[in-house]
Design goal:
alpha/beta, 56 helices, twelve-stranded mixed β-sheet
């Protein structure tokens, strides 16, 4: 129904399913298609399938035609239309005047609708997909019940404006309906049309015609009428002034009563009209399984998308909440700030304070007076849920009732379900009626057990199922003649009328023994409420838990409300409405007013033996002089033994070293990759390249223990050292600046952090928000209430402040175990920035090998399932029974009663264990187990290590009471030195008595006498009761010695998923995961123990605690449990670790025999309870000894100190000398006899031994226990489907259920879709609703189970992030020594003027050219001989073995300087404009220009293309602006400006669009320069994408497979051609041709940095000098070289290649005349007639250098400048892969296969012929030149080219050009001759100058076979060389790939 623009699933998957669903519904002729959400989320149950059985026609048109047939009882006859007037339009969808009437076409056009008319959608059979729009007089349309429509018709055409159609037949003709049957308005006027918030006309609700096809679906109170919210018609808005006759203070509390709507005001009509289509919040609590006897299909696929009501209500606007949501009175106490923290069984919607009543949502009639003393009489405040209709005013004693609108909200939302379907074109289904809702509610209440509490979620699910089933049933009714009866329970098919409702409700309630009482009213609810109050006061409702009041007097609708009067239910429900702050406030009030003291007398009656205090005093006096307790005796003995030995004997105690676990490392890496992905995205939100180091701040909740714990984490992790933040003297104060406790003083520290981040833009600050689900209150709430509590909204004020959001160098990381409140529709965190803790195993395989297993909530729940011998989650049935009995007292006493009861249990148990056995009848078995183990555990250990008991008392004032009470009992029993009682409160640190501090210091070997424990982890092994207070745990970690978590006192506010999991998270634990067993066995070992405890099943007769009970057990049962732990005393709960039998039976032969001969099993608690003199019963009857090694107690390093378990080593050391099962020694001495002495056993029983192997035992309240262990139909624990957090609310009641199979990511997406923040939530104002721009780009969320090691993971993340940043500022550059240095001679080779800044031309010309290649990348290249040196074979450097050829070249890691060249990953402020990211220039705004020139050698015109960005056009000359490209501007030789670089730089590149170093902005130090990338045509687009602001020179397509030679060739030829053009152009301006700058730079794409050598020479001729190398800009080097005085005389200039191994001799001479590589400055004028070989792939620079030298030109290398080359492992020459042309041949091709005989059947290769030739010669040239191998005195003569023949063969280069410089070859005998594509300069006479060895070989290479023969003839080769037919070869290319041909021959 309209308003469909909000609340939809916005995913492609959804749209696809929706589309398919609609299409299927239109096409299918069988069953109704599956609902949209069923396809997305749910599996329908079998009942649903059964209901859907049979086939039916669902096509709307077919359905209508069928109904038409039914109505006429015969075949349809064509309807005779009047003849149409001539010339009128007959097009479907248009009226006869030719105007468009289709809704899609005119939905946005204004329409003239007369008063009293409504816009209606007409269905046309010829246009099934369209609605036609018309205006109809509403008097001729039905009311909401399908009645009262006037007969006839009155309508207007909205197209042409024609009015006054009085007959529907006439109107149907006008709008071209073209019907074949009699036109009927009931059949064709289908929908109301309404405008949504954008003003677009959309399809609204169906028109409810009585008697049409909907007759059997009719539900009386449908929502299709204007009285959709009948109540709204009486009050347009919430009164902003107090209503006369009411108390103004009521109003104050009232404003929160609304279901937490957009404003803290009331929200009456929260149904379809609220929040632009998002339904109001629901109570999303746990539902019980036993709902109704209805079939329960789970395919609850409802899209919740409510829209406005059919007709506008006064004050309703789609933009705002519905009418009653108007004014919000100010000053509503201090309640708004928490809005709804503290959720419980009822949703957090109307929050009712202790002294305020929620204002009735809509009230009318006489006020109802609440009787005085109601609370005293009833012992609980009744909770009244407003239902349907009007609710009367209440007055009088308002403090004694609570009124909530939750039920009203639930009812309203369940009305929206059908609209969700309607708007997607599903068949029209009416929502569930009000009567049916109320009846279903009664049914639900009737079946609730006495200890159950009603949950709104249950009701929502019931309504949804009921609606679905009635919907399916109705569909069936259209197809089957007799409609099938609906399954039992009231059927919606036969609607319940308001008259029937009261007696149906009474009938339903009659079976429940007065639990539900129905009151029927004649006139208004006021009389029913008055009646209820009267019955309450008279005590007639003592057995009644729920009162249902129904008033069905109004004709259109009913009024109803439901009052919860059961004491237990009312207490739970009303308590759940309190926020934590109010809860504490109320407790404080009761403590101050002394109400608690009044309970003393009451408690004294609970102990028939007399008051506990009296008994304690008596006991104290009796035992004062002589402590006879066996406990005391044992402790004295133990102390003595310690003094004698000096050192403790127990080795179970081991404080865990801080190491990192594989899981934590994996999570740290995941965090790092997310940060990198933010940086890699194109949004420029994080520029990692601009950061040099990492700094951080960890924000934690205001808990002193958590603070100290985090400090220790940071201290021990070494992260400060790693980040370089640690100074020499590290102090605790230094660490404290990195951890921020979010208390009142946090603001100052945080401001300093912000200031620091602002001042250090090159430091990346990571702001870690640990425990991030705490305090999500919005800062706007703080602004309202800052006086009362300054800490409210602190997280929002600090972490969400503008400075943090906008700082480009702050990344915020939220860390939490409970991320749900940060996963709403308004979250700031992108789903892509969520990191979830990885699962430990996938498909049964462990992903990370860890020797400990995490034991969390799911494992605790698993332990309660059948098949496990010991549940770790339990409830105390006897405690619960006492609670229930005491629950008759007034509510405000109950929490104190709970505490007193718990304290009494502990007191009685301590007394029973200490020698007053009669007291054990006044405690529970569970409490007795706890105290017995607490007191006995220190006796088991030679050092007195004990266990910890956690007693959770959320309310701090009550925790103090409990502490004082237990301390008093302990003192009276003289147990002060046996165990400590610690009060743990968030605001204070840990306080431990001196005696125990001394023990801890001794155990932990701490010398410092001032040391005090500051965290709970440091209490390892201390026997103690920790009373843990605070409404929420704040991330405190507990030690491994934690044995019991007593959560019996947690209140009902934990019934929210976050709160519940948070409480249970206290017990999360790591258990040893020793020798790998089969999975089943391992689980059993972890989770099995002695018999399942009978006491948890309420069998109290087994209450005995003496050891003798264990003898009563049958041997068979004890055989099963394999443990001495007595099951009866329930002390066996210690044991999931000591139950070794479960495993030993699984693997009886897991260990060698010696280890089977193990020490006796750990003894059970029954035996622990005995005095020391008692003997141990030998364990004879227990079958073979089990494989104890799986349970050896030795601790191994524990990686994260937040995790409270030690890892355990695998070996068991059972040594006779060492009286225990030691694991720290690691020796496995297996020679011990089976009966190894009882005190070996005793030592092994140290509580820490067990602790490492079993998690704590958790006691829960029964209500919570039931929720945790029950599961829904999918097997998901029902606790998971609770409202995720008190600060959010559900977006709709009709959402799919969570599924057990959902991953964390899917759960996150679920919550992001189905939850919205409350107004008090800090994300509330972020209205992005899933739009990407609403997410904060630098915000991440790490979630993982509690206590799993998240702190260690994020500290590790900081380390790896820091390492990565350092790595980002470093590059691997080639660091190789120059080769062949020893081959240089000392004669006149040196340039001796060492201080010359530029070469002296005359001196330089005298230097000989050094033919030897020194660049290390040519280590495997052939040596070039010259007459200057005779090369002996041993002189050749150590050449690599063939297998070493591919060894990684040597590199060094270098820090990038500020003058580095960068790749595309670098972004910084300075180079944004350079890179093209600048507002002035549109990205990619560049133009393509063709540039042609002819070149005779290629025999054709070369067509090049330039891509020139707009910002670079000034470098070029055009015929006119935007016209033909004419030339590239060149500067003048005489220009002396230092602002720019004269030489254009060309960089040929392939395959390196991301990694090529093309950003020269910093290298050029910002100087203007012209840089051209030379790319292949097929790579043009990708390079243009990555480098939008770079000039590209695009090579012709024929060069797509060419090598670097082609690029060099074209760069040089283009540059010369351009030089000519510029000379001609500038000559016209009067400039001489020789004044145009002729140099260009050709640079590799991997040149990263440039250096200069500073030389301090003592004298001109001195050889002793010092030198240093420093980084300089390329600008510095270029301007120095360009300023050389004689530069025009040099053809080629270059730089040395950097190496860390550079010798002084190499830089001593400033200039060398030798080969230059990598970065060359080329004079295109001088080298006009010397070309690069365009065919070359390898060594083309060496070849070109030799040509330039032989042409008599000068090459100069500046030795004082060096270039560093980065190692780039992608692209470049690596991009050429030689593969077979046969696609299915995947075998690698070896170089020997690169050539073959002509015409052979050799496999052809997909590679250029030239590449195959060069590669073959490099590896196999010895096949052609066998005499040349290692024969350096007789090289191969290579004419006009240099080809690499491999390192074993030397070559002698000669040029055939006239006047060329060649070495003298007269005295050389050559071992071979290589003629490669020789031209006409090579003649027979030229070759006859050279002399060859006998047997020397010749290789002639030509383009084809014919030219090969011509060459042989032309050069007269057959005169001296002998050829054979078989000596002809070709490269392994197919003919179309133009192979090269070889001919070899021998010298005669």
């Amino acid at each position: 129904m309209g308003n469909s623009y909000a609340g939809q699933l916005k995913t492609t998957r959804f749209e696809e399913v929706l589309h398919n669903s609609i299409e299927a519904s239109l096409r299918s002729n069988n069953l109704v298609p599956r609902p949209i959400f069923s396809q997305l989320y749910l599996e329908a149950e079998q009942q649903l399938a059964a209901l859907e059985g049979g086939s039916r026609v669902d096509n709307e048109e077919e359905e209508e035609e069928g109904e038409g047939g039914l109505e006429t009882n015969g075949p349809p006859t064509p309807f005779q239309l009047h003849p149409l007037p001539e010339g009128c339009c007959t097009t479907d969808g248009f009226c006869q005047a030719g105007k468009d009437l289709r809704l899609v076409s005119i939905s946005n056009e204004p329409m003239d609708v007369p008063a009293g008319f409504l816009l209606v959608g007409v269905k046309s059979p010829s246009l099934p997909d369209h609605l036609l729009v018309c205006a109809v007089d509403k008097r001729f349309l039905p009311d909401d019940n399908g009645h009262n429509a006037l007969l006839g018709f009155s309508g207007n055409c909205v197209g042409c404006g024609k009015k006054g159609f009085c007959y529907f037949t006439e109107f149907s003709n006008h709008i071209n309906l073209k019907l074949t049957t009699q036109p009927k308005k009931q059949k064709h006027l289908k929908y109301y049309l309404v405008r949504n918030a954008q003003g677009t006309l959309t399809k609204g609700p169906l028109i409810c015609w009585k008697g049409s096809e909907f007759r059997s679906r009719q539900i009386p109170a449908s929502t299709c009428s204007s009285s959709l919210f009948p109540a709204l018609e009486s009050t347009a808005a919430f009164p902003s002034e107090p209503v006369p006759g009411t108390n103004p203070s009521i109003l104050m509390g009232a404003q929160q009563a609304g279901p937490a709507s957009d404003h803290p005001s009331l929200n009456a009509a929260m149904g379809p009209a609220v929040f632009n289509g998002k339904d109001s919040p629901k109570c999303q609590q746990l539902a019980k399984n036993n709902l109704l006897a209805l079939p329960r299909p789970s395919a609850l696929g409802i899209l919740s998308n409510s829209g406005p009501p059919k007709k506008r209500h006064k004050g309703w606007s789609p933009e705002s909440p519905s009418a009653p949501d108007g004014g919000c009175p100010q000053g509503g106490g201090n309640r708004a700030k928490y809005e709804s923290a503290g959720m419980s069984c009822v949703p957090q919607v109307g929050l009712v304070g202790p002294a305020s009543v929620t204002f009735p949502v809509v009230a009318s009639g006489e006020p109802v007076s609440v009787p005085d003393n109601l609370l005293k009489i009833c012992k609980a405040k009744p909770v009244i849920f407003k239902g349907h209709g009007n609710f009367p005013y209440l007055c009088g004693n308002l403090n004694d009732v609570v009124v909530s609108p939750l039920l009203y909200t639930c009812y309203q939302n369940s009305q929206s379900v059908s609209r969700a379907y309607e708007q997607y074109g599903a068949s029209a289904i009416q929502p569930i009626s009000e009567e049916m809702q109320l009846l279903l509610t009664v049914y639900y209440l009737v079946q609730l057990a006495a200890d159950q509490v009603p949950l709104m979620e249950d009701l929502e699910q019931i309504f949804l199922r009921s609606w679905r089933e009635s919907h399916l049933t109705e569909i069936r009714q259209y197809q089957q003649a007799p409609p099938q009866p609906f399954p039992p329970a009231p059927s919606a098919a036969a609607p319940v009328t308001s008259a029937q409702l009261p007696w149906l409700a009474s009938l339903a309630a009659s079976s429940c023994n007065d639990s539900v009482h129905v009151i029927e009213c004649a006139y208004s609810l006021a009389e029913g409420l008055s009646e209820m109050f009267r019955l309450l006061v008279e005590g007639k409702l003592a057995k009644t838990n729920y009162v249902v009041i129904i008033c069905a007097c109004r004709s259109a609708a009913i009024d109803s409300c439901i009052a919860v009067t059961g004491k237990y239910q009312a207490r739970i429900l009303s308590e759940s409405l309190l926020t934590p702050a109010e809860y504490q406030k109320e407790v404080n009030y009761e403590l101050v007013t002394g109400k608690v003291d009044s309970l003393g007398a009451f408690f004294s009656t609970l102990c028939p033996e007399g008051d506990i205090d009296i008994l304690l005093d008596k006991f104290h006096q009796e035992n004062q002089g002589h402590i006879s307790s066996s406990l005391a005796a044992s402790s004295v003995t133990k102390a003595a033994s310690l003094d004698v030995s000096g050192t403790p004997v127990c080795t179970s105690y081991n404080l865990e070293p801080h190491s990192i676990r594989p899981f934590q490392l994996a999570v740290a890496q995941k965090l790092l990759s997310h940060v990198c992905s933010i940086a890699d995205s194109s949004t420029q939100n994080l520029d990692l390249g601009s950061f040099e180091k990492v700094d951080f701040l960890i924000c934690i909740p205001p808990s002193e223990v958590t603070y100290q714990q985090t400090l220790l984490h940071v201290w021990h992790s070494g992260v400060l050292l790693e980040l370089g933040l640690k100074k020499e003297h590290m102090t605790k104060q230094r660490v404290e600046q990195y951890v921020l406790k979010l208390d009142t003083e946090a603001q100052t520290k945080f401001k300093a952090f912000l200031q620091n981040s602002f001042q250090n833009p090159h430091t990346l600050f990571v702001l870690i928000h640990d425990h991030a689900h705490w305090d999500l209150v919005s800062s706007t709430v703080h602004n309202l209430y800052s006086q009362s509590d300054p800490s409210v909204g602190l997280v929002d004020r600090l972490l969400n402040c503008r400075e943090v959001k906008e700082a480009p160098n702050i990344v915020t990381l939220h860390v939490t175990s409970f991320p749900y409140a940060l996963q709403t529709q308004h979250t700031l965190i992108s789903p892509y920035n969520e990191i979830h803790w990885p699962a430990s195993c996938s498909n049964g395989v462990d992903l990370y090998h860890e020797n400990k297993k995490y034991f969390g909530l799911s494992e605790f729940i698993e332990s309660t399932l059948s098949g496990h011998s010991l549940p770790l989650l339990r409830y105390d049935s006897s405690f619960e029974a006492m609670v229930t009995a005491l629950g008759k007292r007034p509510r405000d006493e109950v929490r104190h009663i709970l505490l007193k009861l718990c304290s009494k249990h502990y007191a009685a148990a301590l007394m029973a264990v200490s020698g007053l056995p009669q007291m054990k009848n006044y405690t529970s078995v569970e409490t007795l187990e706890i105290t017995q183990n607490l007191l006995n555990s220190p006796k088991q250990c030679p050092c007195g290590h004990g266990l910890m008991v956690l007693l959770r008392v959320p309310c701090s004032p009550l925790a103090v009471v409990a502490y004082e009470r237990l301390a008093h009992v302990r003192a009276r029993l003289a147990l002060e030195e046996h165990f400590e009682i610690i009060l743990g409160s968030p605001s204070s640190g840990v306080t431990v008595g001196k005696h125990f501090v001394k023990q801890l210091r001794m155990w932990q070997k701490i010398e410092d006498v001032e040391w005090r424990p500051q965290t709970y982890l440091e209490l390892e092994g201390l026997p103690c009761i920790l009373i843990f207070s605070g409404m929420d745990p704040h991330g405190e970690s507990l030690p491994r010695s934690l044995r019991y978590c007593d959560l019996r006192l947690i209140n009902s506010s934990c019934l929210v998923r976050t709160a519940l999991e948070q409480e249970l998270g206290l017990a999360a634990y790591f258990v040893s995961n020793e020798v790998p067993l089969e999975k089943g066995a391992r689980n059993e070992a972890l989770e099995s123990d002695a018999e399942k405890l009978s006491s948890t099943d309420n069998e109290d007769e087994e209450l005995g605690t003496e050891g003798s009970t264990s003898e009563k057990r049958s041997p068979m049962k004890r055989e099963r449990s394999r443990s001495h732990d007595s099951a009866s005393s329930s002390l066996s709960s210690k044991a999931s670790g000591s139950a070794l039998g479960g495993e030993s039976s699984a693997q009886p032969t897991a260990l060698p025999q010696g280890e089977h001969a193990r020490s006796p099993q750990p003894r059970g608690p029954a035996e622990e309870g005995r005095g020391p003199g008692e003997k141990q019963r030998p364990r004879a009857s227990q079958g073979p000894p089990s494989a104890i090694s799986r349970h050896s107690p030795g601790p191994t390093p524990q990686p994260d100190c937040s995790l409270r378990t030690g890892q355990r080593s695998v070996q068991v050391s059972v040594t006779s000398s060492c009286s225990q099962l030691s694991s720290s020694s690691g020796s496995s001495s297996s020679s011990v006899a089976p009966a190894a002495g009882t005190w070996v056993l005793q030592a092994s029983q140290c509580s820490l031994t067990k602790a490492c192997r079993q998690p704590p035992i958790v006691f829960l309240p029964k209500l919570v226990y039931d929720m945790v262990v029950s599961t829904d139909s999918s097997g998901l624990p029902k606790a998971a489907s609770l409202l995720p957090s008190p600060s959010v609310m559900w977006a709709s009641s009709f959402r799919p259920l969570l599924s057990k199979t959902m991953t964390s990511t899917e759960q996150s997406l679920y919550y992001r879709q189905w939850t919205v923040p409350r107004p008090s939530h800090m994300d509330y104002g972020n209205r992005a609703e899933g739009r990407v721009d609403g997410f904060h780009p630098r915000r991440l969320l790490l979630s993982g189970p509690p206590q799993i090691g998240k702190t260690g993971a994020y500290l590790q993340f900081l380390s790896v992030l820091s390492r990565m940043l350092v790595r980002l500022t470093e590059v691997d550059v080639y660091d190789e020594e120059e080769i062949n240095i020893n081959l240089r001679e000392e004669s006149d080779w040196h340039y001796l003027q060492l201080s010359d800044p530029w070469p002296d031309l005359e001196l330089f010309k005298k230097l000989p050219f050094d033919y030897i290649i020194h660049d290390p990348k040519y280590e495997d290249a052939s040596l070039i001989c010259s007459h200057y040196q005779g090369i002996k074979s041993e002189d050749r450097g150590m050449s690599r073995k063939p297998e070493d050829l591919y060894v990684r070249r040597q590199t060094a890691r270098m820090r990038l300087s500020k003058y580095a060249a960068y790749n595309t990953y670098h972004h910084c402020e300075q180079c944004h404009q350079y890179m093209g990211f600048h507002p002035r220039y549109q990205l990619y705004e560049s133009t393509l220009h063709a540039f042609a020139f002819s070149y005779s050698m290629l025999g054709e015109e070369i067509q090049l293309h330039f891509i020139i960005p707009k910002s670079k056009e000034h470098h070029f000359v055009f015929s006119q602006p935007g016209g033909q490209l004419e030339s590239m501007r060149l500067p003048l030789v005489t220009d002396k400006s230092h602002e720019y670089i004269k030489s254009p730089t060309f960089t040929p590149t392939t395959g390196r669009h991301e990694h090529g170093l093309f950003n020269l902005y910093h290298a050029m130090d910002g100087a203007s320069h012209l840089h051209v990338l030379v790319v292949k045509e097929y790579e043009m687009a990708i390079y243009k994408k990555y480098w939008p602001n770079h000039i590209m020179l695009v090579l012709p397509s024929i060069f797509n497979s060419a090598g670097v030679g082609a690029a060099h060739f074209l760069i040089k030829e283009l540059s010369y051609h351009n030089l000519e053009l510029e000379r001609n152009r500038q000559e016209e301006l009067g400039i001489k041709p020789q004044d145009i700058w002729p140099f260009i730079v050709i640079s590799d794409d991997s040149c990263v940095m440039w250096n200069v050598v500073d030389v301090n020479s003592a004298g001109e001729r001195s050889r002793e000098f010092s030198w240093s190398e420093r980084n300089v800009s390329l600008k510095h080097i270029m301007q120095h070289i360009e300023a050389a005085p004689d530069i025009m005389h040099y053809a080629l200039l270059g730089l040395r290649k950097w190496s860390s191994k550079t010798r002084a001799s190499e830089v001593q001479e400033p200039f060398s005349r030798c080969h230059v590589h990598n970065f060359i400055i080329l004079n295109v004028d001088l080298t006009q007639n010397v070309q690069y070989n365009q065919n070359r792939f390898l060594c083309d620079d060496v070849d070109f250098n030799l040509r330039v030298h032989s042409a008599g030109l000068l090459l100069c290398r500046f030795n004082r400048f060096s270039v560093m080359k980065k190692q780039i492992v992608v692209g470049g020459h690596r991009s050429f892969h030689i593969t077979s042309k046969v696609s299915d041949n995947s075998a690698a091709v070896v170089p020997a296969q690169y050539i073959c005989a002509p015409d052979s059947k050799h496999t052809f290769l997909a590679a250029p012929a030239q590449l195959l030739l060069e590669k073959f010669l490099q590896h196999h040239s010895h096949l052609f030149f066998p005499l040349s191998l290692k024969n350096h005195d007789h090289p191969v003569l290579s004419v006009d080219c240099y080809l690499n023949l491999g390192s074993q063969i030397s070559v002698c280069y000669v040029s055939s050009r006239p006047h060329s410089l060649n070495i003298s070859c007269s005295d050389l005998l050559f071992s071979g001759l290589l003629l490669y594509l020789c031209d006409s300069f090579v003649g027979a006479s030229f070759l006859k100058k050279f002399h060859f060895l006998k047997g020397a070989t010749l290789c002639v290479i030509c383009q084809d076979r014919s030219s090969l023969r011509q060459t042989v003839v032309r050069l007269e080769l057959e005169d001296e060389w002998q050829f054979r037919l078989r000596d002809e070869f070709q490269t392994a290319n197919a003919r179309e790939d133009r192979p090269l041909f070889f001919l070899t021959g021998r010298h005669i």
